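Fold it.
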Amino acid sequence: MLWTGKTRSVDDIPPSGIPPILFSSTLRLFCLRCILVAGTVAMTFQIYRRAVPEAVILGATVLHHLLSAFGPRFIPLYTWLDLLLMLAELGFGIFVAVVSFSPRMKKYQWLSQHLVAGDFIFWLLTIMLAALLCVKVVQLIDARGKLLSQRLDILRDRVSDSPGYSRLRSIGDGKSISWWRYPIHVLFGRKIWEQQLPGEASWMTLIRGLLALLFISSLSIFGLFQIVLDPVSEMGLTPNRVFRTERLDQNYRTTTPIVWNLIVIWEKHPGAPQTLRESISLTPLWTIRKRKNSSQGPFGPECSAITVTQDILPPAVNASRFDVVIFYCRPRILIPPDKAHDLLPYFTHPFDTRPNLFLEANFTGLMSPGQLPNTHSDVTSDAMRVYLAMTNNTEDVLLTTRPAYLFPGSNAIGVADLIYKKDIANDYFSLHEGTKPLTPFGIFHQLGSQRAQVSVSTVEKYRGLRSDLQSLKDNPGLLALILDTLIDLDVVAEEHPHGMKSKRRLNAKLRDVEQELSAEKQDSALDPNQEDSAAAPQRLIRSNSNGSDAKRASRDSDSSDEGEELDVSIEGETNEPLLEEQRRRLNLVGTSSRVYQEAQQ
């Protein structure tokens, strides 16, 4: 519940008995987004000719709520008109939801799974429309009817005279807001698009927001299948049942004429007297038609065979090691050339087009001299691999099809399932320095320009950050453990990143000098017995360089006229705490330049 700083009258007191959650704008935005998504998905189930009116109404519903997302500044949609449209949309949703379970529809004992998803989406749309309508009615009651003549504002606070634009303006620190911020906030939220670090590039924020939207969408779709579709499918009851049929309710076309291919592979044995082509034969045993004499068969074409060469085999099947024979078997009935790509004859004549084949093999001629077929036979070397396929691409069949094994002296078939599992990972993202388990975007923060920008902007906003980090290093504890394992602050802990430009590096050193002077002034104000301020320039130079440079800087300050003038200026500044900011920065330029030159050396 959001409140404004205005004085509220007795009429502005919220009605008693109404739950506070109904005044929440988050609830209104959730209902609006669900309506937009459910309405768009429901339109995909109304793409056939008889459902054109339903698709038009759903499109109008989505358009209505999409226009309301652009706010009162652009769309002249008044509250009373919005309520009337929502009542009409809710009535349509209830009508369709009731008709889907009417006695007229119950004559179908099953529905496919995608139709169950369509019914669920329609019910979700109806429920969200009812929820949003109730929330808006409560909002109207709270405003004592004052909103009827105003334009629709989905981001309106609980107070009737506080529009959603004031909220966006308060979020933007009172600055004027762009025209696109209102619809973006309504449609895609706000938190996922905010910068996580000061000075972070906008493209990183955009990628983070898109990934968050993708993650939310994936969770929603996964929940739909796991909570609704899969449980209904497992029950095996209406309105869902898995299709198992030999015929299709509509016709499909193929890219090539259908031919049953039988591929046989045998591993060669040394000294075998026969080849695979000489040892096997394939006979089509087509089903005999009624009132036909079986002795007059076969009633269809014979199968043709070819010996395969290496050019049509995958590299894993070497022709010098394996014998491969392919049988081409056409259907028994004659299919006209104009229907060669049509699947309809294969469903209207199932017994005339299904393969009924008898494969006979003589293993004796395939074995090595002195080796009997039934001794030491194994799947690897003494069994034929038989593939049944409907494509002429032999390489694809051998790589993607599971074969049936034919052993010597038996027609038993054994199948071994192999399950491959691979953990998808990227070693570069896992091993790259600067990344922590909960900072997947840390790799982008390591870029030179981005690292410098984040470091400088962070120090400008949090001046005590580096001192706090140093104290954690001196006395490590729970916070140090969290920083080492969960949160990556190395990108902001570096004092002056190498990717920083020379001008920005000089400004950073200038800020360090100012912080040192501020600390000196605070110490002198707290300790009256402190040593005189004439030693301040030497301490200042010593804190920003190593020991040898500090001694050299001290000698230079005693011998150089420029150094004397610089010491006097800083000493005067130390004794004058109310010196203006501009004068103080001018006096520090010389000191920062010397420190910068020494750092470069």
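Residues 502-600 form one domain.
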